[in-house]
Specification:
The complex is a heterodimer.
Chain A (H helix, E strand, L loop, with lengths): L2 H18 L15 H7 L3 H6 L1 H15 L3 E2 L8 H7 L4 E2 L12 E2 L14 H6 L1 H13 L12 H32 L2 E2 L4 E2 L2 H9 L2 H10 L1 H21 L9 E5 L9 H21 L4 E5 L7 H4 L7 E5 L4 H8 L4 E4 L3 H6 L2 H15 L5 E2 L12 H14 L3
Parallel strand pairs in A: 1-4, 5-6, 6-7, 7-8, 8-9, 9-10
Antiparallel strand pairs in A: 2-3
Chain B lengths: L27 H5 L9 H25 L1
The chains are: A alpha/beta, B mainly alpha.
Chain lengths: ~400, ~70
């Protein structure tokens, strides 16, 4: 690695970490969450970057090198459908198989009566979450896998061998990718580790959103107990997958906690207690959380404000970022806030004007990281991402 | 040379019957009962078992969280 590239990397790391700790670095760090946008830029199809992670990694490298960003997620097209196909996961529509090759992958929620967890299975989940996942959930989401007690099959055995080896291969490759980003681009990995809220796991992968909404009325105590049972495991996985140096945050991807999915009262009772506990426990160990607030979360700000100072980087999607800054800007760094529809349909001048508005409104004292509101897919215009990047680099100097 | 008599298999605890704290699929305490008295470094055997068991734990939770 050249000394110059390492110097660049260290400068960017210091800039990024200072901003995430709500401090004032030399300039605003640029850390765009770019998913299928990278394929568009590098000339790949969605099928190529989703099904062949090596192409996804290469696309990220090209973007990092050409746009000169401070930090980037090593692969934001996170679902490697090579792995999901190898183990037989049935809840994705895969580009090039189920979808045209130029369409991003889709998550498929089953009909309520075919939910991956049945309404009478809460006690099983609560008693032994890991056992439930292996014995009940996995055979249901992977038809290749048989339940204990059923006659074993070669396809069952192969699913685990392929799956285990594929997962090792994929996660090992992230090490090389992170090293390439550092050596070839001087770019910092934006995140390390995975976290989801217990309620979101119930909604996304177990009961389904509609089934869970019925449970909130029919068996609310079971929903609370299930969140409590999941929480220590989600904390454990977040710790196991986090940055050992505790500089990079764990990514928390929130889906169903905000309005209109949950009322603030439901949020307070079902969603928040266990998630708050996980974030507090992580922060006790010095691990920050990238609080990706997908949707409109401003009605929930009074609860979010309860979190320890600097424990999260609050990523703003559809909420009013200026109100977020007024309410919790003293406690937490913010990121995002540049609307995706503007990046998809606006002009570079529109984008620059909006970036100026956000920087003037929330970033004057530091504690802000430039990014779009939500993860950028292939509808984002390249010239608009360039405008966001170049404007911030010039105007965002302290 | 006569064939060796197969070793008597110890009673194996079904994976469904163990208590699993976070980070664990099959606890060392249960697995240890299946071994004959360990002649060498038991800590080493335990450490490697637990490291690999954690990978099995991460496999299913990563399937749930990331895939």
């Amino acid at each position: 690695m050249s000394e110059q590239m390492e110097k660049l990397y260290q400068e960017r790391l210091a800039r990024y970490v200072t901003a995430m700790r709500n401090g004032k670095p030399d300039r605003i760090p640029i850390r765009p969450f770019v998913a299928e946008f990278t394929a568009k830029y590098a000339g790949y199809t969605c099928q190529e970057v989703t099904h062949d992670y090596r192409k996804a990694f290469e696309a990220v490298i090209r973007c990092a090198r050409d746009f000169d960003w401070d930090a980037v997620v090593p692969n934001m097209v996170y679902v490697w459908t090579g792995l999901t196909t190898a183990i037989g996961l049935k809840y994705y529509a895969v580009p090039g198989i189920d979808l045209p090759a130029d369409k991003p992958f889709q998550y498929l929620e089953p009909p309520e009566e075919q939910a991956f967890m049945r309404p009478d299975e809460y006690d099983l989940l609560i008693a032994d979450p890991t056992g439930y996942l292996y014995n009940v959930w996995l055979p249901r989401v992977c038809p290749e896998v048989v339940r204990p007690g059923e006659p074993n099959t070669m396809r069952n055995n192969l699913s685990f061998v392929r799956g285990g080896m594929a997962m090792m291969q994929y996660f090992d490759a992230f090490g090389t990718q992170i090293e390439r980003l550092r050596r070839e681009c001087g770019t910092v990995p934006a995140l390390a580790g995975i976290l989801k809220a217990p309620f979101d796991i119930l909604a996304d992968k177990l009961r389904g959103y509609k089934g869970l909404c019925m449970d909130l009325y029919r068996q609310p105590a079971k929903v609370e107990k299930a969140c409590e049972a999941l929480a220590p495991h989600l904390l454990k996985v977040a710790i196991l997958t986090s940055d050992p140096n505790k500089q990079l945050p764990v990514g928390l991807w929130m889906h169903r906690g905000c309005m209109p999915f949950l009322s603030p009262q439901q949020f307070e009772r079902f969603y928040w207690p266990t998630l708050k506990w996980i974030i507090e426990e992580l922060w006790k160990q010095g691990i920050q959380v990238l609080f990706y607030a997908e949707g409109e979360w401003n009605p929930n700000l009074k609860w979010i404000a309860q979190l320890p100072e600097k424990s999260i980087i609050y990523h703003v999607d559809r909420g009013d970022i200026f109100e977020v800054h007024r309410t919790v800007g003293e406690k937490f760094a913010l990121s995002g806030g540049i609307p995706n529809d503007l990046l998809a349909f606006g002009t570079p001048d529109d984008v620059k004007a909006y970036c100026k508005k956000v920087i003037d409104g929330v970033a004057r004292d530091g504690g802000y990281i430039m990014d779009a509101s939500a993860i950028m897919q292939d509808d984002t215009k390249i010239e608009n991402v360039r405008a966001m990047t170049e404007f911030t680099r010039q105007y965002g100097v302290y | 040379m006569s064939p060796e008599t197969p070793k008597e298999q110890p009673k194996r605890t079904p994976a469904e019957d163990v208590l699993r704290p976070p980070g664990v699929c099959f606890p060392w305490e249960e697995k240890a009962r299946e071994f004959p008295p360990i002649k060498g470094d038991e800590k080493l055997v335990r450490q490697i078992w637990e490291e690999l068991d954690t990978l099995a734990y991460l496999y299913i939770w990563q399937c749930l969280l990331s895939f």
